[in-house]
Write a structure and sequence with these properties.
8 helices, Rossmann fold, single chain
Length: about 260
Amino acid sequence: MKNRSLLILVLLILPLGLRAQKEAFHKKQFISEQDTLKYRVLYPENFSESKKYPLLLFLHGAGERGNDNESQLVHGSSLFLKDEIRKKYPAIIIFPQVPKDDYWTQVVIDRDSFPLQFDFKNLEAPTTAMKLTMSLIDSVVEQKFVNKNKVYVGGLSMGGMGTFEILSRKPEIFASAFAICGAADPAVIDLYKKDLQIWIFHGEKDNVVSPEFSKMMAREINSSGRDAKLSLYPNDNHNSWDSALAEPYLLPWLFSKTLNDNNK
């Protein structure tokens, strides 16, 4: 009985500990005209406005949309809360949240079969969520404590699509990027900066977003003279973000890149 009570106590404490960890990501909101973007931000330990820090924008998947300003932390946030990561890569990490009725990209999705079919509308104005996120990043990059040469973007699933899109809408800002199980129309590559560096990930068994999208984007990016790394996981379905975010070289690679640095 005593052991059972102890187990119950531990199980009760664990969620509280995880929630306390998540609270390290401060709740914020960005307001522009009549629109509001909810987001979370993690500052480096011992943050000081007199120092300059890298900035990473992380775009969540469709399943984490909402208005709770919390669901967007389900995937990815724990990586940046690890003590060794916070010490080795002191950076500002931003997780914005898309409302349920919005999307990162301008795309029409055919959900009648799997993998899903996507009709990207590259020439249309950005979605409200994307527009607000771009304005948010502009406002943060202007702060004196942000290293403007070390601004990065990455995301998974819908956020991988958003990564491909924001690189075309704001090509001058990001030093490098990563896209996990995403998709895009390769026509956007013409809008990418000439020295773009991106790491693309996908599961070969993905039956939600076909891995052929990532293969095509990597192939076309490299054919254009830009630099795309491609990692495919033969046994992964759509949740290839678990493998991608566990890659030991992802963050060293990402944070080593500097804007307009052509060293590959």
